[in-house]
Amino acid sequence: MKSHYRVVVIGGGVVGASVLYHLAKFGWSDVALIERKILTAGSSWHAAGGFHALNADPNIAALQAYTIDLLSEVEKESGQSIGMHMTGGLIMASTPDRWEWLQSAYRVFQSIGIDDCRLVTPEEAGELNPLMSTHGMIGGMWADREGHVDTTGTVHAYAGAAKKRGAEVIENNRVLELNETAEGWEIVTEKGTIHAEHVVNAAGLWAKQVGRMAGIELPVSPLNHHYLITDTIPELESHDTMLPLTTDLEGFTYTRQDQKGMLVGIYEINHEHWMMDGAPWEYGFELQQEDPDRIEHELTLGFERYPSIQDVGIKTWVNGAFTFSPDGNPLVGPVRGKKNYWCACAVMAGFLQGGGVGKALAEWIIHGEPEEDVFGMDVARYGDYAGNKRYIKETTGQFYSRRFVMTYPNEQLPAGRPMKMAAAHDAMTVAGCTWGVSYGLEVPLMFGPEGFAETPSLKRSNAHDIVAEECKAVREACGLVGL
Ligand SMILES: Cc1cc2nc3c(=O)[nH]c(=O)nc-3n(C[C@H](O)[C@H](O)[C@H](O)COP(=O)(O)OP(=O)(O)OC[C@H]3O[C@@H](n4cnc5c(N)ncnc54)[C@H](O)[C@@H]3O)c2cc1C
Description:
Blueprint: E1 4-10, H1 14-25, E2 31-34, E3 50-51, H2 58-78, E4 89-93, H3 96-111, E5 117-120, H4 122-128, E6 139-143, E7 147-148, H5 151-164, E8 168-170, E9 175-180, E10 185-189, E11 192-201, H6 207-212, E12 221-230, H7 234-237, E13 245-248, E14 253-258, E15 261-266, H8 296-305, E16 314-324, E17 331-335, E18 338-345, H9 350-367, H10 389-401, H11 425-430, E19 433-438, E20 441-447, H12 464-476
Parallel strand pairs: 1-2, 1-11, 2-8, 4-13, 11-18
Antiparallel strand pairs: 3-7, 4-6, 5-6, 9-10, 10-11, 12-15, 12-16, 13-14, 14-15, 17-18, 19-20
Helix pairs in contact: 1-5, 1-9, 2-5, 2-9
Flavin-adenine dinucleotide binds near residues 35 and 351.
């Protein structure tokens, strides 16, 4: 370990390793990653390792596509196997609105160059995944470049490729303290003090504490997440291709083959936060006790969707934590008022998004801005208001529970509200105002008749005529716009 580096990355999970790799790849080799224990010792070791194409934000979908392409490149460069299984993947819709949404997502993908997807009927989907019952399904989307990787191998591949380009990885060395200096940051670690121009918080489950070391209250919290792996399923013993990664949106499950059994991951409606102030420092390769009662409803749906798993045992339970921001997208970029302090936190799908996050952040640090549009993951989309613990708890919980629930374009979600209100808020409410939210502030959307509520819809909503009247009034007479 040297006493000075250009950049110090704190955290040796998949995200920190990717940031390190990209910095070195883009020519900054005087960089080091500092890891509290050993590489992967946070969320990364126990992830299911799945990667898929779909994301509601096209820019995040593009970042995911970049990561998927990168994985094999990093494997080759490092010489470290990442256990790549490019099985292809299915995403299935079981309601008319979801099916319409999936078709529109497919068109967006085509327009941004993700062209390895196609829409499939339930019958085709049933042929592609013969263990899945297609009962009640309306349609789905198939993507060629979906599958899963070995999570530990992937982190080591990023780190190994970075080391080959001159970067350093220092393990068993917790960062204890961060102090701002004229040049950048003084980083006090268990093995001594280092100076760096830039510091990157890629501390995953501990991002909260590493933020607080610099006086920052990041809007991030860990939540627990379950998956199970079944014993051998007889149908799979004679099956020579691997089952595709399959997401049943209305069933709250994602699945993939694991050896000759199946891995079933569950997005729990009844979510559970874990260590909201960050994981304990001594926490290592541990998991939480599984809680089948909490996920009984989703489990039942999963067992109905994949009837073969009803007849085999469960080999392994995983109930582990990973971190979420209020809207579920990563928190990446420079932090206002803290020179050269960079975030690469709240990456809830590190194996899917870590490559893109690493690239964007390395470009930002080196060139002053990332090449792609990263607005959806810029940490600056949140202000100080988002440090409020109740806000973090409600919004991260809402995102988690709704991970597989469709949000309509005109839908206003309730968590963490109201936070900041105009002085005339109550009077406007009495006058029929319905409210949206922007940067923590309640903003008026429209004024409707008494008892009016807008119905979320993919089509023209029941608020159309009301808004049309308001627009007409402003055009032909006058009006006041509240922002
Ligand atoms: C059950 C489960 C299943 C999942 N399945 C998938 C999946 O299929 N696909 C997918 O893409 N993602 C999946 N995930 C999410 C994935 O695990 C995370 O997105 C990813 O691991 C986040 O990586 P990270 O590098 O941000 O954080 P972490 O892996 O938590 O790494 C942070 C690192 O920082 C180190 N650190 C913290 N503080 C300090 C300090 N002060 N000094 C030095 N080092 C420090 C820690 O020791 C740790 O190693 C899953 C998660 C869970 C829990």
